[in-house]
TrEMBL record:
Superkingdom per UniProt: Bacteria
Source organism: Sphingomonas gellani
Pfam family, one: SocA_Panacea
Protein name (record): Uncharacterized phage-associated protein
InterPro entries the record matches: SocA_Panacea (IPR025272)
Record-annotated Antitoxin SocA-like Panacea domain positions: 28-130
Amino acid sequence: MHDARQVANFLLDYAEERGIALTNMAVLKHIYFAHGWHLATCSQPLISNRIEAWEHGPVIRSVYDCFKAFGSAAITSRATTIDWETGEVVEARATFSGETQALLHWTLNYYAGYGAFELSAITHEADGPWDRVWNARDGKVRLNMEISNKAIQDHFVHQLKTASVQ
C-alpha cells in the first residue's frame, strides 16, 4: 500500500506529461477511482489512507490538505511529507510496480475527459459507497464519514461484472 500523496504526485506528473491540468477535487477523484479499481482487480488496497465522504464526494484528507491552497485552480506543486529519519519536508514519492503504473495511467486516461464536478457526480451514484455513507438514514454516527475499503471494493467489483456482461 502507498500513501495517497505518493499516488497524487504520480498522477500529477503523468497528467503534466499529457498536458492535463488537475485540480484538488480532480486529483482526489482520480485517486479514489484508482484505489477502487485496484481493490477490484488486485483484491488489495492501493492506498493506506482513510477515504471520507465529503459534500463533493470521496476525499483523502492528507491530499486535500496538501493542495487546498489551490482552490479550484490547477495544481502546480507536489504533495509533501516528512522524512522521519531527517526531519525534512520532502516530495512524497514511491516506486510503483509496472502493474500499478499501468492502472494509474489507465485511470487518468479513462477519466481525464471529465471535469472535476463531473467526476464528483460519478462518485455520487445512487447506492454507491459515497451515497451509502453520506445519505445513511440508519441513525448510526460515522466517525469522519469513513467510506470502507470493503464498500469501495464491492462497488468496483460490481462495475467490473456489469461491464463484462455488456
